[in-house]
Each structure stands twice: as C-alpha cells, then as structure tokens.
Design goal:
Blueprint (H helix, E strand, L loop, with lengths): L25 H24 L5 E5 L2 E8 L13 H24 L3 H24 L2 E9 L2 E2 L5 H24 L1
Antiparallel strand pairs: 1-2, 2-3, 3-4
Helix pairs in contact: 1-3, 2-3, 3-4
Length: 178
C-alpha cells in the first residue's frame, strides 16, 4: 500500500474569512462592530435616562426623545399584532448573513464594502433591540416648522449612509464602464 503524500503544502493557503481576491473582511467587520457598539451604547443611555415619550430640546430643529418602534422604517407595520417583531428579526438575520457573504466576495472593493459594513452594523443593532425589547429604540428627532421627521437612531443612520454609498458605488462603477 502506498503512502499518500500530503497535498496541503502544495495548495496555496487561504486565510479564513478572506475574499476571493485575497482581501480580508475583518476590517469591514470591525467597522460594523464599531457602529453596532455606538448604536447600542447610545440606546442604553436613552433607556437609562429617559422614560418613553420624554424629550429634551437641543436646538430649534432637533430634540432627543425616547420612542419605541415596533415596526420597520417610518413605523411600517407598527400597529400589527406582534408577528412583525419576528418577521423583521428574520429579515435582519438574513440580511446580515447575505452581507457577510457579500463582504467575503468583495472585500477588496472599498466603497462597496464600507457600505455593506454600515448596513451590517445597523441591521444587527436593530435586530438586537427587537430580540431584547420587542421594539427598536429611537431617539433622534429632527423637526422643522412644526413637522417632525420620524425619530431614528444610530443604526438607522448607518443603514442610510450605507445605502447612499451603495448608490454612489454603483454610479461610479457604471461610469467607469463607459
């Protein structure tokens, strides 16, 4: 019987969690982690110092408030019977899984990966709120001439920044292709 030679030394080693291009996703996961920590820290402060509905005027157009959102963006489905908590949690978990896969595949594309990391950090922040509280803690309240924009949080801001960066990345990609 012949001994089988080990082929592990002849294969190029690939670091775990590295993209096909050889770039690591760890820096992008670090960005997502920083955003997640900032989100959870600010929400913890709001929960600790404000009661539901409390508000502090900061400027003529901005308040800090404590609001609970059982729905999604702009309180979509907030009035549903409770099933939306698990629905939006499942969507967040699925999105986080998909984003990690995308980061692994495209870690060398800086703007795209930054956008994905922002969305990942925000999505996980809001999923944790839904799991812990049954709602998302919102506290940033901008208003003008008596009209209030729906309250939001750091996670929502990160998701929005990520979405804008995705659009810019696509526009620049299309422009480079011409």
């Amino acid at each position: 019987m012949m001994a089988r030679a080990s082929s592990s030394s002849s294969r190029p080693s690939r670091a775990p969690m590295a993209s096909a291009a050889g770039r690591s996703i760890w820096p992008w996961l670090g960005v997502a982690l920083i955003l997640f920590i900032a989100d959870q820290f600010t929400k913890t402060l709001i929960l600790g110092y404000y009661l539901l509905g409390d508000s502090t005027t900061v400027t003529s157009f901005f308040n800090i408030v404590r609001a609970h959102n059982t729905g999604a963006a702009f309180s979509f489905l907030a009035g549903a019977s409770g099933w939306q908590r698990w629905f939006f949690t499942a969507i967040g978990v699925a999105a986080a899984t998909f984003i990690c896969w995308m980061l692994r595949s495209h870690a060398g594309q800086k703007l795209f990966s930054f956008a994905m990391a922002c969305i990942l950090g925000g999505a996980i922040g809001n999923v944790v709120d839904r799991l812990m509280h049954g709602y998302v803690v919102d506290f940033l309240d901008f208003h003008w001439a008596g009209q209030h924009f729906p309250a939001f949080n750091v996670a929502d801001s990160a998701i929005t920044i990520g979405a804008v960066c995705l659009v810019l990345d696509e526009l620049w990609r299309v422009r480079r292709g011409r």
